[in-house]
Amino acid sequence: MTYSELQQKLHAEGQEQVLRFWQELGAEERHALSDQLEHVDWDMLRLFDHPARKKGEIAPIEGLSLAEIVRDKKIYRRVGEEAIGAGKVAAVLLAGGQGTRLGSEAPKGAFDIGISHPVYIFECLIGNLLDVTERVGAYVPLFIMTSEKNDAETRRFLKEHGYFGYPAEYVRFFVQDMAPAVGLTGKLLLEEKGRLALSPNGNGGWYSSLARAGILREFPAVEWINVFAVDNVLQRIADPAFLGATILSGKMSGAKVVAKTEPHEKVGVLCLENGLPSVVEYYELSEEMANARGGDGALLYRYGVILNYLFRADKLKEIAERHIPVHVVGKKIPHLDESGAFVHPEEINGYKFETLILDMIGLMGSCLPYEVERCREFAPVKNRTGVDSVDSTRELLQFNGVIL
Ligand code: UTP
């Protein structure tokens, strides 16, 4: 694109401010910026002006309760362990996020939550996976999704720590895509005079990025993929009982869930939307729905998701080309101000465009909610202090016998 074509395009989109420092740029920087701008998804940016999609008809979803799982655990576990032993299971660690709430520049998995000695988040997760692989006597390929921002550092950190005892030949990395970020009025931001502020495009792009990286071809026996977040240090990965229950259910996906502690708890709730599995945010549930109870007295909308899902690989392939909705999410975005000074905001100052893994559940067509005990399997490190923080996670790790 020539400079005048670029100007015209940006004028039409109301985004000329990104050329503010053009006169100061060298040839290479100009080329890099126009290249970035040519790749901007303008339709996605226009979503900024549109209200969120209206939800369809919401209904409760049937799931497996703790008591039912305890009753049938032996059989679930046997089926799951057989699948792992036959190489049918892979795990995907979502580690492409920026962890802005935690406020650490390093990859979140490299965060040390120890007290008297280092205990890294990656160490906890890999330790949990090793519990299973050692018991079964077979390794589960571990695919780690990073972003451009933390890929090199994540690889370096894990290599330096010997993958915390996991065999390197079973570890693969892949990098997710980036998307431009905008300020509070929808204007594209710059992170350098010749570079747009880009951020990872959300955890919903994990399958397309994994497929593009070609990693699955190396493990052709894989039939099930367990996808999980980097920040829940207590979660069980490739949990044989969860696998067995999902396989035996005949459903295309499974989701680990915890029972809500009270009707208005701020968690995404698994339910049915127009007959398909879906996650609704706590504010999308009406007062009546939030409080509704079944004959047994339990909340009808009680299953909060904890970002630990199982997906059937053949179905993922089938839905790969389907459209996943884009969410506009308020975040703190480091950028250059009008004078060219770098700003590290303390408050939310703009929006990122993200696709979310929870939207894939509907595309899969069916999902088994599988209840787990919150104090045993859910300790997310999102913030420094308060709810879902380093403090609350330490308490829960200690409760589970981990020496910090
Ligand atoms: P969060 O929604 O907690 O986002 O991610 P985050 O970026 O880690 O943290 P904040 O909101 O900036 O504080 C949930 C999971 O999805 C991954 C994260 O690494 C985490 O495991 N994720 C998120 C990605 O892999 N890529 C993304 O673009 C966003």
Q: What is the second-level CATH architecture of the largest domain?
A: Alpha-Beta Complex
Quote the CATH topology of the largest domain. Spore Coat Polysaccharide Biosynthesis Protein SpsA, Chain A
* Averaged pLDDT: 94
Strand order of the largest sheet: 4-3-2-10-14-11-19
List the bound ligands.
uridine 5'-triphosphate
Shape: globular
User: What is the number of domains?
Assistant: 2
Number of strands: 19
Strand content: 15-25%
Name of the level-1 CATH class of the largest domain: Alpha Beta
- Write down the Rg: 22 Å
Amino-to-carboxy terminus distance: 56 Å
Helix content: 25-40%
Q: What's the story with the biggest beta sheet?
A: 7 strands, mixed
- Counting helices, strands and paired strands, the structural category is alpha+beta
Regarding quaternary structure, what we see is: single chain
Number of helices: 13
